[in-house]
Amino acid sequence: MQGLNPLDGLAPGTTYGVLFLAGFIETAFPPFPGDALTVAASFALAQRGGSLVAGLALSCSGSYLGGLTLWAFGRRLAASSRAGSALLGLAPGLDRAVALLARRGVLLVVVSRFIPGLRSLILLAAGYGRMPLHHVAWALGVAVALWQSIVVGGGYLVGRNWVRVVTAWGRLGLVLLVVAALGGYAAWRRARRACSSGGGDDSS
Question: What is the DSSP letter of 48?
């Protein structure tokens, strides 16, 4: 991945900023590919000797603020006329999401974090359905901490152990190539025996 990662040349200080912005924009303005950018930035941070703790903290902060921004926008939308939401084409989806939140509560806020595309709608619906801020705040905090730890930690871990990953992948590729060759040879032998048996039956 080194050389293919567009963020390889960034200094750790700039990479921290990318992690914060990626977390914020990905949550507040979907379908921005923030998770992919976060992985790339985490990889680059590890390659430059940056701090995993600082990177994770900034990524979580950005994502958390983005989620609260969506909730606040949903509240603002609910306070305005329903014509405003209809104008945005959001009313049907928001009504369904609000109904889901009424049944599942804050658990849905946590779970939706792991489903790209749904996470932002649920946060918007939480504001639109007037879910209290203190409920959203802790559920969003748990969800962000879990998800960003996976994304940032995974990218950072691969970046720190890139040589080992490449070596292991090369060995795995060699094993798969050998297995594929043996499987192809066995299939060829079976096909050849089947043809021979078919030919013997025809002659009799």
Answer: T
DSSP-assigned states of every residue in 4-32? T-TTTT--HHHHHHHHHHHHHHHHHSTT-
CA distance 43 to 41: 5
Asked if 110 and 135 touch (Cβ cutoff 8 Å), the reply is no
How much is the pTM? Answer: 0.71
Cβ pair 60, 34 in contact under 8 A? no
Write out pLDDT tens, residues 146-196. Answer: 999 999 998 888 887 754 544 544 445 545 555 666 666 566 666 666 666
pLDDT tens, 35-55?
Answer: 888 988 888 888 888 899 999
Residue 60 structure tokens: 């979580």
Domain boundaries, the chain: 12-160, 162-204
DSSP letters along 110-147, please?
Answer: HHHTTSTTHHHHHHHHHHHTT--HHHHHHHHHHHHHHH
